[in-house]
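Thread: Modeling a multi-component assembly for a lab meeting

Hi all, long-time lurker, first post. My supervisor asked me to bring a structural picture of a complex we are working on to next week's group meeting, and I have zero experience with this. I have the sequence lines for every component (545 residues in total). Could someone generate the structure of the whole assembly? Inputs are pasted exactly as I received them:
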Amino acid sequence: MALGNKKKKNRIMADDELIILENVTKTYQSGSPALNGVSLKIKKGEFVFIVGDSGSGKSTLIKLLLRELIPTEGEIYVNGVNLSRLRRRQVPKYRRNLGVVFQDFRLIKNWNVYENVAFAQRIVQTPNRLIKRNVPAILSIVGLASKYKAKPMQLSGGEQQRVAMARALINKPPILLCDEPTGNLDPRNSWEIMKLLEQINKRGTTIIVVTHNREIVNEMQKRVVTMKKGVIVNDEEKGGYIDED
Amino acid sequence: MRISSFFYTIKQGVKNIFRNAIFSLASIATIASCLLLFGLFYAIIVNFQNIVKTAEEGVAVTVFFDEEVCQDDVRMKEIGDLIAGRPEVSKIEFVSADQAWEEFKVEYLGEYAEGFTENPLAGSANYQIYLNNISQQADLVAYLESIQGVRQVNRSEITAKALSGVNNLVSYISVGIIFILLAVSIFLISNTVTIGISIRKEEIGIMKYIGATDYFVRAPFVVEGLIIGLIGAAIPLGIIYFIYDRALALIVERFNVLGDILKFLPVQTIFHTLVPISLGIGAGIGFLGSFVTVRRHLKV
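Re: Modeling a multi-component assembly
Sure thing. I ran the full set together rather than chain by chain. Output:
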């Protein structure tokens, strides 16, 4: 009997494997696939840049990893869990394993720095006394201990991004997804954010950074996955930014 | 759910009202205006119905007996029991021949009554019968006329028909207008709540990306909607409470000629129904509006 497109169950992964994409295709209703048969493995503790021009499929990849989208074909496993098999009500719990940092920071504007960061702990039902201890600690790490009462609009872009990172990291997720984290920052702030990411990576967190920033990619000498028109065209340890031409 | 999460939810709901002060004020104002209109109209309608009902209750059917029955207290009692057992009857009063004569003397004769040594209304013992619903008068009269020993049944058919017609008309118009007012209120209020939440859909999206459950995102919004709904409902109730007696006093003063007809209900009677309806609408719309609108933005 043919099993057809029946989804595979969760799988046991090798000790060092964290994320596996197997022939992942994502086609939107508009037609041509945003991702076309992409296979990729990311190990625990890796620091990976995903680069490519607009329309290369980077954002779709992030959305798939966030389980905002489901692949049209293929499977994605994160920590052994097949994302296509996750039920809607299981998604929040899955996302708590990911820290997410966006280009536009996505902080809640009406809340101050403390509340924005503490919210990540409240959703995992951390007791108040621990929140009161943990939030100042993480704000110290990102260098914003003194600004805990400030509203996002009172902070610079770099500071807002550091608040977003504090929020992403406070629950100690094994994976940090960063979608163009330096896209709205000046070079000095961009480098500060990247140094922070490097420090976090050294503590064992797997970091995936989608970026356009050629200088940073070339300078940092990390693994670079280059995408073009929905496929991976290059995957290199200690790689650099490859020009489209 | 942890107790701290429960209190956090309540606290966030209350804080959100102040954080989004303009939206909160707009929602409260919309709810309050709609429910004030509804409340005022409700008070007017209920009073009007009460006036008509009071007028109806004052219309009695009078039953007189055959001459031999007038001398037979037992038979008159039997007839009284039969009438009192009818479902149309709200109240029945026996007027003896002596009472009838006394009333007649007082009302029409005064000092001239002294010339009478015997009761000229000896055959005038009667029952005054009041109805639950004036529209049932014709049926009751037909029944009364069929009772053995009943000589005559007096009633005012024109008054009964007029009152019954007015009552029906008022009922239809009230139901129609209350329904329209309610529908408009629900539409306006839910629109305001929807707009208020829609402008915060980014906030909802952020919470979802971080890993918040639908419940965790929705609960503070629902608390917020509920509180806004209750405040919006309480304000018009307060206004009606304070202006009701003054408005009545003014009406009675202006139309004192109609003092006997204009029987108004006390504010407590109006509030007996208006308070639960208004609070129910306010809280219900606040709750449902926020619940449904947030759900629309949860699919992230």
